Structures are given as structure tokens and as C-alpha cells.
Amino acid sequence: MEPRAGVSKQDIREQIWDYMESQNLADFPRPVHHRIPNFKGSYLACQNIRDLEVFARTQELKVDPDKPLEGVRLLALQSKKTLLVPTPRLRTGLFNKITPPPGATKDILRKCATSQGVRNYSTPVGLDSKVLVDLVVVGSVAVSEKGWRIGKGEGYADLEYAMMVSMGAVSQGTPVVTIVHDCQVVDIPEALLEDHDLTVDYILTPTRVITTGCERPKPAGIAWSKISCEMLGKMPVLRSLRHQEEQAGKDVTLRDRPRSPPGATRSPRDLAPPELGSVPLSSVQIGNLPRDARVSELKRALSALGVAPSRLTWQGPQHRAFLHYRDPAEAQQAIACLQGFRLGANTVRVVLARQQRASDLVGSHTAEPLPDHQPTIAGP
Question: What pLDDT sits at residue 352?
């Protein structure tokens, strides 16, 4: 099965998904549309990894949580290798280390390799952990014999790899393996590839082991210009990495965040505090803050997101805060960036603040901005 001429990545995805369903090649969970498709024979394809020398010498590997990769996760555990699995949608971190209980039986190891096992037998791995990944195993919707890969369209495998590069866990020489059905190996036009797309070195199917010899460079780190404020708001680990890279002097400008002109300064009018007695229309209300939330946590998160306000009014007992911006456009930008944002276990509510009387702000802590061109948040 070959894709039609002049197709897009999404065209190829739809063609693969439709074919696998129509030919009954798909396996649970179904339908496979909008997924890394599981397929009949996936366990057999996973067994082929034992024929790779790179697997034999691997001590630590990262395997995606997709269903068709379950057999590789099991082999890694049975071989007593360190198994790292990305957290779903990167919401709570980057990796979980799968740790079977002492004396785990074969049945327990099989359970550890499942998505339920990943939840029940894992410990988080922080960004400061000394992780050195010898092998990366990813799922794919389509892949070419040249090593060019198409995922399900959400970019998580590409982003996970770029994040591992940023934290020094992988290098250009770290091999990448994908496991697919034979029908998923198709020609992919090179014009569809972008710099942030992850390529693969080995393709395992139920009938073949393909060494791609791919020489196209893998992502050299996070392309912040491809990251949206919304993505950053949903991934605390990504915010932490952005903060680290910003501290290192790298350009971390987001896709939907315009760069400030060099040498830009704020006028005294910009620095003026909100009008006493009301919350100005350029303010944003954040609600549903955790009971134990601290203003310092919110400050760090807003700074990492690139939406630090000119002033912040903290109302911890009411589980809310007000972010004051220089103009309504900045406030609307902050609202867009904070959609889906989580602080602790809570997804916060973000709305443009209504006009409020000074009496509504009793018990709040408001911090004045510093006379600097960078917005500053202050608090206890």
C-alpha cells in the first residue's frame, strides 16, 4: 500500500488507519483512528528486537506507552533492563521508571508492561536525575524504509526526544526503533519532514527487521518556536525545561508569543498600578487554586509560561489571584496561554476579571512592579 501523490501527513495517517480497519489488521483498542495503531502480530514484531545488537547491550531504554509496544516493555523487564515510560501527555512529568516488586513472577511482569502496570508499578524520574538512555522505542502510524516517521499528529514522541536531548539523556548516536505492521511501511515524501520530526534507525514488523541507515539529523533540542502557550500550560516539565534554558541564555520565545524588541523599555504609564478601588479590564482572574498553593509557585509557573504580569494580587484564602497587565491585549494573551493550566492537582479557572470594588480585595496581597523592562511578580 503506497500513499497517493501530493498527500499530506494527515492523508497518510487516514489511509493507514482506514486500511488497517478495513482489512481487519487492527487489534484492541479499536477503532485505531487517531491512535498509534495496535495490530495483530504486534507481540511477534516486538520479539524481533532481541535480534538487534543494540538491544543486547542496552542497559536503560525508553519505550512509549502505546499498546503495540507492550511486548518490548515486557522483554526489557524480563531482561532486567531499566525501563522508562513517558507519562501520558507529559502532564505530570517526563518519565516514569517501571519498578516491579521484588521476586515478581512472569504474570506480574506482564502486568507491569501494560498501561495499568505503568500506573501501578512506577516511580517518577525528575529532570535532575542522571538519566542516560541507550535505546529509544517509539510507536508510529507510518514509517518509510529511509527512516522517516509519521506519528498520530500530536507530536509527543518528537517532543519527548527533544526534551531528552535538552536534559542530556540522549545524543545523535542514540538508536531509535519503531514497531509497526508491514502495511505501515510506506514511501513518505521528504518534503513532508520538518526539523523537529524524529527519524528512526530500525523498523520491526512481524516479518522484517529493517535497518534504515537514516542520516537525517534527529532533533537537536526543543524548538521553542513550535511550542504554544497552551502546550506549555499543560506540561509542568516543559515549563521547567524552558526556565532552565532561559537561564542558560537560550532563545525560548514561544510560537504564539511575540519577541520583545531589543532594548524595549516600559514607560512610567505602563508601570502605573491599577486604579484604586477596582480591578482594571486588563486583569485576569485565576480561580480554583489548590488549598496549599503558594504565591511563589504561581510566580514561577507564570514566569516559565512567559505571561508574568506587571502586578499580582494574591487571595490565597479565596483560592484565587488577579494578574494585572499593561493592556487588554496582554491579558487576552495570558488567558490563551493559561487554558488547561494545572497548579498542583488542580486545573485552574482563567477568565478576564470583572470590575471589582476595593472592598472585594480585602485580605489580598498586592505587589508593586519594579522599574525594569521585564514584568515582575512579587509576593510572600
Answer: 87
